[in-house]
Amino acid sequence: MLKLALGPLLYYWPREKVMAFYEEVAASPVDIVYLGETVCSRRHELRAADWLALGAMLEAEGKEVVMSTLALIESSADVTALRRLTANGHFTVEASDMGAVQLLSGQAPFVAGPHLNIYNPPTLSLLAGLGARRWVMPLEMGRAGLAHMQRERPDGIETEVFAYGRMPLAFSARCFTARNRNLPKDDCRFSCIEHPDGLVMRTREKQDFLVLNGIQSQSALVYNLLAELDQLREMGVDVVRLSPQSQHMGKIIGAFDAVRRGTVPAAASARMMAPLLPAQACNGYWYGKPGLEHLTETTV
């Protein structure tokens, strides 16, 4: 059966909220949980030991736990933290940059994250040879590109697709959330903790355009492939990833679980789920169209 994964928490939440959130996740039907800070090393509500303790708790509840690394390494302290994480000796690690791949190669199996730019079979074969046991499709790759990758996928490697959430599109050395408050990055006053689902940026025409999340830029709309789960299953996808949001995450997980089990039709589940999204849904990338479009297989 298609597995459900909960991706790493991309936002900065208070410690109590994070702990309560993962207590809920422990009782949810997700199969895989990604943990750890992937956006900004200045975020310290939880330390490395806290993430490992959460991992132990979730593992005891039957979840597969994966520790995710920072996507943008900016300092020697970040490198030191990366070395410790990749050498944790217990949990699988999701490599978010090639530095993590280098540290993991030949040492332990790992997950090749969505920011490694795996767009062709030779790249996937290279990473499989270095120890990747699962790869996550890049956010903007559509079903045509995935079909090509699946035909030439190396033996022994799983495919995971980002199927729900605001898409993490880019990273910068600048902190846009701090800049919004006229603060320097080194004195950001942890501004992003005030925006549990990111800070929406609008055009002059008042249309939602992007979401600012510290040094990360996300889509303003919510990528949602709930209605495409059958397509994903038929293409041989092993795992679909849901990205955490601050409200209604348990119901979102439940909707995906019901559709993958066939207990609720996808169309009905999508209608019920619509009010739970923090913004309108989109799926254009999947169909090879602009990402902000929302399409169905019959309208492509």
How is the topology of this model organized?
Blueprint: E1 3-6, H1 15-26, E2 32-35, H2 48-60, E3 64-68, H3 76-86, E4 92-95, H4 98-104, E5 110-112, H5 121-130, E6 132-136, H6 143-151, E7 158-171, H7 176-180, E8 199-202, E9 208-213, E10 216-224, H8 229-234, E11 239-242, H9 249-261, H10 266-273, E12 281-282
Parallel strand pairs: 1-2, 1-11, 2-3, 3-4, 4-5, 5-6, 6-7, 7-11, 10-12
Antiparallel strand pairs: 7-10, 8-9, 9-10
Helix pairs in contact: 9-10
Task: Offer a few descriptive terms.
31% helix, 10 helices, 300 residues, alpha/beta
Provide an overview of this structure.
This protein is 31% helix and 21% strand. The protein is an alpha/beta fold and 300 residues long. 42% of the residues are buried. It starts with a strand and ends in an 18-residue tail after the last strand. The chain has helices spanning 15-26, 48-60, 76-86, 98-104, 121-130, 143-151, 176-180, 229-234, 249-261, 266-273; strands at 3-6, 32-35, 64-68, 92-95, 110-112, 132-136, 158-171, 199-202, 208-213, 216-224, 239-242, 281-282.
